[in-house]
Design goal:
Shape of chain B: globular
Helix content of chain B: under 10%
Largest sheet of chain A: 7 strands, mixed
Order of helices and strands of chain B: EEEEEEEEEEE
Mean pLDDT of chain B: 97
Structural class of chain B: mainly beta
Radius of gyration of chain B: 13 Å
Strand content of chain A: over 45%
Structural class of chain A: mainly beta
Low-confidence stretches of chain B: none
Oligomer: heterodimer
Low-confidence stretches of chain A: none
Number of strands of chain B: 11
Number of helices of chain B: 0
Mean pLDDT of chain A: 97
Helix content of chain A: under 10%
Radius of gyration of chain A: 13 Å
Distance between the termini of chain A: 40 Å
Largest interface: A-B, 22 and 22 residues
Largest sheet of chain B: 7 strands, mixed
Chain lengths: 117, 108
């Protein structure tokens, strides 16, 4: 069965960077794109970006352009999302999701990133 | 960018009630819309894809309709396990996605 397992929760200081991993299993990793979505406490879901796991092409939300980098390691069947210049407003649960029929269907368990001095 | 306006932002309803949630797109998105259910501390679960297609295993009391700019999610008879937050998602601009603001369905 398809599984996405994300890295554990993390605490960062303002100005630092965080890198969240998303390890996939149960399917051929390079055949499906991965989306990254975040959710601040009590807030809506927010799309951050996308990676074509086959060729590594990426697209990012304008909101995060310049601060977010999504990569993948096909040998490890793992996607990564790195967010830099962290501020308190970046405190959120970060999700990876595999698409199916064009939209996120399989989701990771979420990774809580807390930004605090 | 396409904006998705979801209403209401919250509602209180009783078990057995009929509930309707609306999503409006700022421009036409054909039927490139999905609905998700999210419970506290959990990842979203897709209920509906292509505006009106029910995911396998999702109870038939859930239904979706609409095309273009206006979409609805209807729960025909609300059950205790349906109390959750619901989101619409447009993917007409795939891979760029836009979520609606969410509707929290609470117990009256």
């Amino acid at each position: 069965q398809v599984q996405l397992v994300q890295s554990r929760a993390d605490v960062k200081k303002p100005g630092a960077s965080v890198k969240v991993s998303c390890k996939a299993s149960g399917y051929t990793f390079s055949n499906y794109a991965i989306q990254w979505v975040r959710q601040a406490p009590g807030q809506r879901l927010e799309w951050m970006g996308w990676i074509n796991a086959g060729n590594g092409n990426t697209r990012y939300s304008q909101k995060f352009q310049g601060r977010v980098t999504i990569t993948r390691d096909t040998t490890a069947s793992t996607a990564y999302m790195e967010l830099s210049s962290l501020r308190s407003e970046d405190t959120a649960v970060y999700y990876c999701a595999r698409v199916y029929s064009g939209v996120p269907y399989y989701w990771g368990q979420g990774t809580l990133v807390t930004v605090s001095s | 960018d396409i904006q998705m306006t979801q209403s209401p932002s919250s509602l209180s309803a009783s078990v057995g009630d009929r509930v309707t949630i609306t999503c409006r797109a700022s421009q036409g998105i054909r039927d490139d819309l999905a609905w998700y259910q999210q419970k506290p501390g959990k990842a979203p679960k897709r209920l509906i894809y292509a505006a009106s297609n029910l995911e396998s295993g999702v109870p038939s009391r859930f239904s979706g309709s609409g095309s273009g700019t206006e979409f609805t999610l209807t729960i025909s008879s609300l059950q205790p396990e349906d109390f959750a937050t619901y989101y619409c998602l447009q993917h007409n601009t795939y891979p760029l996605l836009t979520f609606g603001g969410g509707t929290k369905v609470e117990i009256k």
